[in-house]
Design a protein that fits this description.
heterodimer, A: about 375 residues, alpha+beta, Gyrase A, domain 2, Elongation Factor Tu (Ef-tu), domain 3, six-stranded mixed sheet, six-stranded antiparallel beta barrel, about 30% strand, globular, B: about 120 residues, OB fold (Dihydrolipoamide Acetyltransferase, E2P), six-stranded antiparallel sheet, three-stranded antiparallel sheet
C-alpha cells in the first residue's frame, strides 16, 4: 500500500500539543505545525459528533493580531486599503469575512475581522488569519499599514473552536449569554473567571464559537469544555470534511494568489460601498469581473458514483474537453457520499451541468450543484 | 488454509492451494483511518507482482494497494462496495479485497511471515 510522503522540517507546537498526544491523537504536519488529524474514534465519528453534538478544535496555529488606531474610522479605512470588505460599516462587536488581495485582485489570504465590542477599545480590530499565511500576512500588514496604525501580533494567544448544535448550550455554562450572541459577532468576556474573546462563528457549517485566550490559560478551558458529555476533541481531518460539506473555501486549495474573490464565488463578502468606491488592491479586475462575469468560477461537484474525486482531478465536459480542475474533494460523511469543489470555465458553471471527473483515467459522471452540500445551521437569532 | 504472509507495503496474502486471498493488514487499515471507498480490479485481470491492484480511499486520501504476487484475479469482494468499513473492522476477515490465482508460487518465498512482519512493524516505529 502506498504511503504519503513525510516532511522532515521541524514542526511548531500549539500549547495543547501534549494534550492531543495524551488523548490518542494521530499528529501530522500542517502549515508548519504538528497538529491532530484525528483522535481515536476517527474522522467519520468526529465529523458526525460535530454535526450532532459539539466538537472542540484546537486552531491555535492560526494567526491572531490586533490593529489599533485612534478610532474606528481611522483603523477601518487603513484596513480597507488591503481588503475589499466594508469595515467602516462594522458595528461594535460585528465580524466579517474578507481577503487580503494582491494588486491583481488575487487572494493572499482569507481572514476574519472583528470590531471590538468594547467602547473603551474603539479603534481596535481583531484579525484572524490562516496558519500557513500568517508570517506573510503580518509582513504585508507591517509593510502597508500607515504609521498611525499599530499592529499587535498576538503570538501568546491560543484559539479554540467549539462547533455543533450543542455548542451554545455548553459554552453558556461558562460564558454567560453566549447563547444569545448573534452569528458573526464577538465579545470580550469571561470564561468562568478567565478573560477570553469569543465570536459566534466557525468553519464547520454548524453553529458554534471561536474562543481566543492567552496561551497559558487555554489548557484549563480545553479541559473544562472536554469535561462536558456533549463535547469531544476533533482533529483537522473532520475539520476539513465539515468545511467541504459546508462549501467553504480553504486557502491553498480554493483560494490562491491567482484566484479572485469573484472567481471563488465569495463576492458576497464585498459589500456595496466597496464595489462602487473601490480603493482596494485589484479593484479594476474585480470590478470588471463583477460586471462581466469571471472567466472561471468555483462550483460544487456531486459525483454520481461512490468514488471520491480528489484535489487535482481534471473536470471535463461530457465530450471529454477539459473545463477545469477539482480543488478539494473527498467523502462527505453527513452527505454519505463523495463531494468536491473546483473551478470550471464560466460557460460550463451553471447548476445542473453534467460533467466528467477524470479519476484514475476513468471518466466519472458528476453534476455541478449548488453549495453547501449540507445546509448551514448558523445561529441567526 | 495456508499461512498468511505480508509485504513491506502492508498487503497480506493467504494462500490456499494455488489461490490466494489478498487484502491490507490491520496496521494498514489503522494508518488509513475510516475507509469510505474501494476500487477493486476487474475479474480476470492479470496482475504482475507490484502492480497497482486496487485503490482504497479514506476520508482524507487515496492509497494504492499493490499485488503481492503475480496472478489472475478470480474473485473480488463485492460486499466492500456497500460496506467499505469492513476493511477497518475485519481487515484479514470480511475486509478481504480479492482472490488471485498464483502464476508464480515461488514469489511467496520473498514475502514476510507474520512474525517477520511484526518485527518489521516494530522496526519502522
Amino acid at each position: 500500500m502506498s504511503e504519503p510522503q513525510t516532511d522532515t522540517t521541524p514542526l511548531r507546537r500549539t500549547p495543547l500539543h501534549d494534550r492531543h498526544v495524551s488523548l490518542g491523537a494521530r499528529m501530522v504536519g500542517f502549515a508548519g505545525y504538528d497538529m491532530p488529524v484525528q483522535y481515536k474514534e476517527g474522522i467519520l465519528a468526529e465529523h458526525q459528533w460535530t454535526r450532532t453534538h459539539a466538537g472542540l478544535f484546537d486552531v491555535s496555529h492560526m494567526g491572531q493580531c490586533f490593529l489599533i488606531g485612534r478610532d474606528h474610522e481611522t483603523v477601518a479605512r487603513a484596513l480597507e486599503t488591503l481588503i475589499p470588505a466594508d469595515i467602516l460599516d462594522l458595528k461594535p462587536g460585528q465580524q466579517r469575512y474578507s481577503q487580503f488581495l494582491n494588486t491583481e485582485g488575487g487572494v493572499l489570504d482569507d481572514i476574519m475581522v472583528t470590531r471590538s465590542a468594547d467602547p473603551d477599545e474603539d479603534g481596535t480590530l481583531m484579525v484572524v488569519v490562516n496558519a500557513g499565511c500568517k508570517d506573510a500576512d503580518f509582513a504585508h500588514l507591517k509593510a502597508h499599514l500607515p504609521s498611525h496604525i499599530k499592529l499587535l501580533i498576538a503570538e501568546h494567544r491560543a484559539l479554540l473552536a467549539l462547533q455543533g448544535p450543542e455548542a451554545a448550550m455548553v459554552l453558556s455554562r461558562h460564558c454567560k449569554g453566549a447563547d444569545e450572541m448573534a452569528f458573526m459577532t464577538g465579545v470580550s468576556t469571561l470564561f468562568d473567571a478567565i478573560p477570553v474573546h469569543i465570536s459566534r462563528s466557525g468553519y464547520s457549517g454548524e453553529d458554534g464559537y471561536e474562543i481566543s485566550v492567552r496561551a497559558d490559560k487555554v489548557a484549563i478551558i480545553n479541559e473544562r469544555l472536554l469535561a462536558h458529555a456533549e463535547v469531544k476533541p476533533i482533529g483537522l481531518g473532520a475539520r476539513d470534511s465539515l468545511r467541504l460539506e459546508a462549501g467553504l473555501c480553504l486557502y491553498g486549495h480554493e483560494l490562491d494568489v491567482t484566484t479572485s474573490p469573484v472567481e471563488a464565488s465569495i463576492q458576497w463578502s464585498i459589500q456595496k460601498r466597496r464595489r462602487e468606491e473601490g480603493g482596494f488592491p485589484g479593484f479594476e479586475r474585480i470590478s470588471r469581473e463583477l460586471k462581466e462575469g469571471p472567466s472561471r468560477k468555483r462550483v460544487g461537484l456531486l459525483p454520481e458514483g461512490r468514488a471520491p474525486a480528489r484535489e487535482g482531478t481534471e473536470i471535463t465536459t461530457e465530450d471529454g474537453v477539459k473545463i477545469g480542475v477539482v480543488t478539494s474533494g473527498g467523502f462527505g460523511p453527513t452527505l454519505n457520499g463523495p463531494c468536491a469543489m473546483g473551478y470550471v470555465e464560466t460557460q460550463h458553471a451553471a447548476i445542473g451541468t453534467k460533467v466528467h471527473l477524470m479519476v484514475r483515467g476513468t471518466a466519472m459522471p458528476a453534476s455541478i450543484v449548488a453549495m453547501p452540500f449540507v445546509p448551514h445551521r448558523f445561529y441567526r437569532g | 488454509m495456508g499461512e498468511t504472509k505480508y509485504t513491506k507495503d502492508h498487503e497480506y496474502i493467504r494462500v490456499d492451494g494455488d489461490v490466494a486471498i489478498v487484502g491490507i493488514s490491520d496496521y494498514a487499515q489503522s494508518q488509513l483511518g475510516d475507509v469510505v471507498f474501494v476500487e477493486l480490479p476487474k475479474l480476470g485481470k492479470a496482475l504482475s507482482k507490484g502492480d497497482e491492484a486496487a485503490v482504497v480511499e479514506s476520508v482524507k486520501a487515496a492509497s494504492e494497494v499493490y499485488a503481492p504476487v503475480s496472478g489472475e484475479v478470480t474473485e473480488i469482494n463485492a460486499a466492500l462496495e456497500g460496506q467499505p468499513g469492513a476493511i477497518n473492522e475485519d481487515p484479514e476477515g470480511s475486509g478481504w479485497f480479492m482472490k488471485v490465482k498464483l502464476s508464480d508460487p515461488s514469489e511467496l518465498s520473498g514475502l514476510m511471515s507474520e512474525a517477520d512482519y511484526k518485527a518489521y512493524l516494530a522496526s519502522i516505529h
